[in-house]
Predict the structure.
Amino acid sequence: MSRFVLRRLLQSVLTFFGATLIIYALMFSVTTDPLQALAGERPLSPSQRAQLTAQYHLDEPFLVQYGYYMRGLLTGDMGRTITGRQITDVLAEAWPRTLQLTAITMLIVIVFGVTGGVFAGLRRGGVFDQTTLAITLIVIGTPVFVLGTVFQTVFAVELGWFRPSFAPELGIATYVLPAIVIGLLSLATTMRLTRTSVAENLRADYVRTANAKGLTRNRVVGVHVLRNSLIPVITFLATELGGLMSGAMVTEGIFNIPGVGGRLFQGIRLEDGPLVVTIVSLIILIYLVSNLVVDVLYAVLDPRIRHE
Amino acid sequence: MNRRMLAAWTLVAIATLGSTACGGSSTSSDAFVVSIGIGEPKFLIPSSATETNGHNVLSALFTPLVEYDDQFRPIELAAESITSPDNKVWTIVLKPGWTFHNGEPVTSDSYINAWNAGAWGPNAHDGNYFFDKIQGYADMNPRDARTAPTARKLTGLEKVDDLTFRVTLTEPYVNFKSMLGYAAFFPLPDVAFTDVADNVIDPRYQEAPIGQGPFRMKGTWQHDQLIETERYEDYAGAAKPHIAGVAYKIYQQVPTQYQDLLADQLDVVPRLPIENIGSARADLGDRYQQSPASVIQTLAFPTFDKHFADVRIRRAISMAIDRDEIASKVFLDAQKPLRSFVSPVVPGYRGNTCGEWCVFDPQKAKALFEQAGGAKAVGGRVEIAYNVDGGHKPWIDATCNQIRANLGVECLGNPQPKFAEMLTKVEKKQPVGMFRMGWVFDYPAMENYLGPLYTTYGSSNYYGYSNPDFDRLVAQGDRAATPEEATTFYQRAEDILARDLPMLPLRYEPNNFGYSTRVTNVHLDLFNLVDLFRIEASAR
């Protein structure tokens, strides 16, 4: 097992650097004039342009710029944004918010998605199953920005149950509405997956055996069926983490949460290469780690799977 | 049971009394903080705050040397007097008794040091170009960043005494006094610098800027969230604000500001997004308002594109555009039709200087277009380039539809990801078609449109218009003895634009703002800034 983890970690390092290079190259190729992007529609004075160009190495070739970036990164200096803030500071403020939002979203998805899926699976074709099928289909088909704006208008502006925008003084509660919006999309898929998986496993031989042995229904479902049914769900959730983060980008904008999504959006708008690459690289890192965790979890959930 | 009820009622009574007592002491709006929606400022250093967000915050923390009367003429505010015998050497006398929020007195050095730092090339401040008229600017700003500047200070700034200093310009400039109302000319306290001699501003200064204005920072800049200010009790200005402070709430998207306004979580939305204008009249009623501002929207003809070389083509296109319809149908009157080359908020503005060429007349347009060679003359189709990140698509499409219908020539929008990208293409002389431009003034003067946009070496003359007569008239205006005399030159210059039509004026954009039920007396100035001395608030 430890060898498996080690091998995967080494692979992750390679993936990480490769991905960073590619993102940097992509960013470089779409960058035309970050200084003008920063100045908007205002003119830049020639001396100011000359200064900033030298400061940010904008006139250097791609590999040299990438070299500066990597040298900084490896020495723990992520550099500065185009407005002169330390990228480390920006991310230190933004990441906790995005992580909190993502954690709450995950919680909602797991609690409601898995529970709903189990109930639907146990009573396949029942009223609950049919209704959730219809609702989840509608939700899956709705773009997240529509969902976000509608929820904001209905639950925050009209009903007043939530604040329409980020309010740090409310603590964790301020993330609930946006988390529901992001979560709903994954919730639908999670519910569908769990339902199918549970329904399938209910007919498996080991369940019949368990029933024949006279185990209580709670134990059969709660331990035997659920554990095996969760494998596809967990695979989905791990890959969905990336999806949740991109959903968070849009939702953070709508609800004005100053998280990573907003910074990424700003970075792309201002053609701020280092900022965008740093954020995307970190997202890749999270993705790699969560995938590794899932692979390890497989072995825990299913004794038949062994990582040699 | 009875006793308990009695106790409860007593509590309620006490609470009521308490709250009325509280209410009684604060019926004036002085006790309340007003929240204003902005985007994340790029910088909070005066000489770098050329965008509205930073300008908004600094307008609470600082008081400019001049403000503007209702004729858009400058009148002294933090200055006692600003005079010049020849418009070249200006003497600025400060009002006595002003202090920064840290107690440091405001002296002529506060201004001289701040302006030197702004003009210092290596600082690369956004407002750097504001100082280019002051003597010694060129030596501080080499065009090649690798060569060191030959001077550290503007030779044109000279201290006379603690409250008086002289500014010498390289050329006489009649509008210099008007310029001084902008944020770039705010003073800086000594604590803002780590090294005054080398023009080095402490990078931590902008996290909690110290100014001499009616409000001071409360805590530090909470990036992407909030900037809080409170009333500065020792403020020396004659007018005093009627509110306890201003909280600038930072938003990533303007539509969220509107949602917060509806939910009563935000007091002022200075710039209502176009998608909310339609519902704003119903949602807000009288709390949706408009006031004059300086933005103009135009379409430029690149001179390197031979298709637009014939003035008849330019005139035909102009006459084929129904400005009124686009302003009312696409913008729901949030923007107004413009038929002059400067905005209505500068002294010397005359309506309709563009004359017959900006009057919608499809028959005449079509006839003129055919006479000039028709569709073949423009290469088969007309293109209009625009940046997609600014919400311009609807009106570009509408304009194209009008051109197509009225001139019988194919017209296509040419979307560009960003304004910067469009400019790069124009500078490389790639045929992008006509392209959109917008302009916000820095100070209310006709020159601030004519100079940068239309003179041969204008900083925003991306499309290459050049007319020596025009340049000469603008220069004569700049050197004129009085603002009134300058205006006559500027107006003659503007008349040339009407003949040459290098750019089509389309619309001007007033402030479109909305406010909550708890604030009254909300006014926005020409810079889209809330008048913090007039606004009043009540309990939520």
Observations:
- The mean pLDDT of chain A is 83.
- Chain A has two domains: 2-74, 97-301.
